[in-house]
Amino acid sequence: MAFVLLFVYAFVGATHTKAEEGAAAWLRYAPLDVEAARHYESLPAATGLLGDGLVLKTAQTELVRGLKSMLGRTLRIGSGIPTEEAVLIGTLAQLRDVAPDLKPQQELRGDGFWLTSAQVHGHRCIVILGANDRGALYGVFTFLSRIARHLSVSGLNEVQQPSAPVRWANQWDNLDGTIERGYAGRSIFFENGSVRTDLTRVSDYGRLLASVGINGCTVNNVNADLRVLDVDFIPQLARIAQAFRPWGVQLGVSVDVSTPKTLGGLDSFDPLDVRVAEWWQKKFDELYRAIPDFGGVVVKADSEGRLGPSFYGRTPADAANVIARSLRPHNGIVFYRAFVYNHHLDWTNLKNDRAKAAYDIFHPLDGKFDDNVIVQIKYGPIDFQVREPASPLFGGLQKTNSAIELQITQEYTGQQRHTCFLVPTWKQVLDFDMRVDGRSTPVEEIVAGNSFHRPIGGYVGVVNVGLDHNWLGNHLALANLYGFGRLVWNPNLTPESIIEEWTRMTFDNDPLVVRTISEIQLASWRTYESYTGVLGLQTLTNILGSHYGPGPESQEKNGWGQWIRADSQGVGMDRSIATGTGFVGQYSNDVQNIYEPLASTPDALVLFFHHVPYTYKLHSGKTVIQTIYDSHYDGVESTNRFVAEWKSLHGLIDGARYQDVLAQLTYQSGHAVVWRDAINDWFHRISGIADVKGRVGNHPDRIEAESMLLEGYTPMDVNPWEGASGGKAIQCTDTKQPCTVIIRFAGSSGWYALDIQYFDQNNGVSKYQVFVGNQLVDEWIADLHLPATEPNGDSSTRRHISGMALRPGDEIRIEGIPDAGEFAPLDYVEIHKMELISPAR
Ligand code: GCU
Helix 133-148 vs helix 200-211: angle between axes, to the nearest 10 degrees? Predict the structure, then answer.
């Protein structure tokens, strides 16, 4: 076939404005300056395709788009054997027909690819070859990523293989358009019970996923809506599959095991009932007629109130296999989630332990699951906490395929209002050596199928992007989606290299930008941990509510089993074999030797595994209680540093994203104070032990709102008490009238900064005005839509006003104007003396 040359005006990348809203994420393809672009002058002016598959065509379009955007050059598009220098795209099999002698030095498998330079039919070519079409697309993204990062593309000879065949995203979208644990707007897939008419964002999402090697996506909540398999819904799903298809992303859905009965009209959903098996078979035959490349299903059963096989005395293997057998003829997979536990545990029984559930239930079933079933295991034994040990179940399934489930959406890690780059924690879990049978069996090798020679396995990330322009509601949070893809493609990559790549592509190649953003991101998980859940305490959030702000009491004395067992003497769950719940016994002997003895348990997880007195001295030499206090203060300092570091990038980043991130990091530094005080006050009260540095419960610059002169404001108790300073706040008595507090300034003359701690609920938009004497010095509205309808640790936030000249006797007046259900609540004011020439914070 002749190499047909055509001139095309490639579709230019996202517009400048759109890109700066964050929609383009790391695929901005920012134009290179003249100097940087010079290195790519010798790139061929044409591109050829060796095949005609849909995904290959996408690869070529993407190549043209990227080069046009970055280098301002429009490649000539052709196909077949090159008649000039070209970037050739295809599969290894296709290359064989054109250039039989050209082979990579390594075998190409799965979705792998090879980037190289070679003479093809006498023309110098850059060759981008996949083991399959998808691999070629991944090769193109990698090639473009190199240019975006100003790396050389001449003389390339690089083979990349994914670490595992399964690299899926899960979305927890509901058919009504809401998203369970989604923090970035409504669903890109569904609205009002149907698939959206406009699926542009779905195709854009497919592109983002493909760019980091993610090859499948389930689109609806694991708490599955039965209608997803309805006869009317399947054609709608087919439209989503169509939007994903050009990107090599297979569609999957979550299904409910009771569907044969509840939707199908049978009188049973017993997995061993032949009628049930027939129902599943017919259903999936029907589905595959509409979506021949459908990937598979996720199943959540017998968990958190969902029906499951236990209803009929059957096992998860029975439930998984009946569905798997109906998928097998179509090459589909069942992801059966191991997140099965009793949430009505008796907390008074010290032997009870939710952490044991997954292993107790699934380990005895090892070998009983069909080959197209993957047991999908959350990384830790509880539930996406800020730090957990690796789930022992990874070592407990040797004759069963497994995948690790990671959470990109920051349910327990700040809900994208706090920056928390999770790759370092995932990396720790993946690198953790389960030491099964005394040999090296790191989690990453187990889920890849290598340790126990399993045919499939891999990775699932719960993403929950929404309609927000920047996908996750926080520009910095996108590093978690990027990082998930990159890390699961190659778990040997370091968090440092991943964040550097992401920063260069998302923001800029400027060394200061790269260094500063990388530093913030790399420090962010430990920072978040330091003020929300140190020493393996899990995230001490309100687990009965939003999972967002502080709420340590909510862990205790209920059936959910996230207990930390704090009392006046000590804290921590004793999970040892000798005296505790025996959870440690679910690990191999070598791992037991780390976690069973208190002395060898790392400080970072000590309270996950042991109950100790507050005065117990850690490896660090500090007591438990002082570590808790100090780390919360350190955490706040670190969030303040993030703000200062970010400010050093002023002018180096486009204005919109600079301001967005500044606002987000500033908010985070204020909410870190809320967390710090809540957790420290709580432990102070329960332990009765003072902070040796005298900070806890002692805030000399702070004036409680309830102690100010109130006009129209009434004091109230906040619940739980630790969500407000002193357990109290004030709010307007008359919900329609403005109300006022007055502070008579008693300090010396000088420059001051004010921190006004108030509550921003999602059921009203109150307005606040601050006056000194008659002069209005600041005003704002409370419209952050924090996840609360009352004043508490979720809604508590602060306004910072700096550079105020105050004299003794000055009257500071704050006026609150209530709105709807929000009565302009206030917690306290802090007045800080500023240095003579003090940079704004
Ligand atoms: C968490 C989360 C739920 C979710 C569940 C799951 O408990 O809070 O919203 O349904 O995990 O993973 O199934």
Answer: 80
